[in-house]
UniProtKB/TrEMBL annotation:
SUPFAM superfamilies: Glyoxalase/Bleomycin resistance protein/Dihydroxybiphenyl dioxygenase. It comes from the Bacteria. GO terms for molecular function: dioxygenase activity; lyase activity. This is Catechol 2,3-dioxygenase-like lactoylglutathione lyase family enzyme. InterPro entries: Glyas_Bleomycin-R_OHBP_Dase, Glyas_Fos-R_dOase_dom, VOC_core. PROSITE patterns: VOC. Pfam families: Glyoxalase.
Length: 124
């Protein structure tokens, strides 16, 4: 259904440094830079960060969350710890198991340095 997700930033170099480290914990290669944007490409989709083309400041989406997949609880914990160590803030409940009926998910949430809400999920 989706080809990509793109969020805004006010500091492309800082965003690249942050996301290279954060997504590296999930085995995703460092970003490819294309002028005012960076792209992380995988077999399952593309995540991009861009300076706004209209020249206005980037703002975080109120109510929006970008979700990433982790292979294990340990990978999700490494993602969360790496984010916090590199300028993100933990949000929502602490990383842990959430039961949704018969389905159990291990979730962790962050706000990146630009305020975008991120989640990593491991299906148990």
């Amino acid at each position: 259904m989706f080809s990509h997700v793109m969020i805004g930033t006010n500091n492309l170099e800082a965003a690249k440094d942050f996301y290279d480290k954060l997504l590296g914990t999930l085995g995703i290669a460092p970003a490819m830079v294309d002028r005012h944007r960076i792209f992380y490409r995988t077999k399952t989709g593309t995540f991009a960060v861009s300076k706004p083309i209209n020249g206005e400041p980037a703002t975080a989406a109120n109510g929006g969350t970008i979700g990433f997949v982790a292979k294990s609880q340990e990978e999700a914990d490494a993602w969360h710890a790496t984010g916090v160590a590199n300028g993100a803030t933990s949000c929502e409940d602490p990383p842990g198991i959430r039961a949704m009926g018969d389905m159990k998910l291990y979730l962790a949430y962050l706000r990146d340095p630009d305020g975008n809400k991120l989640c990593v999920m491991h299906r148990m």
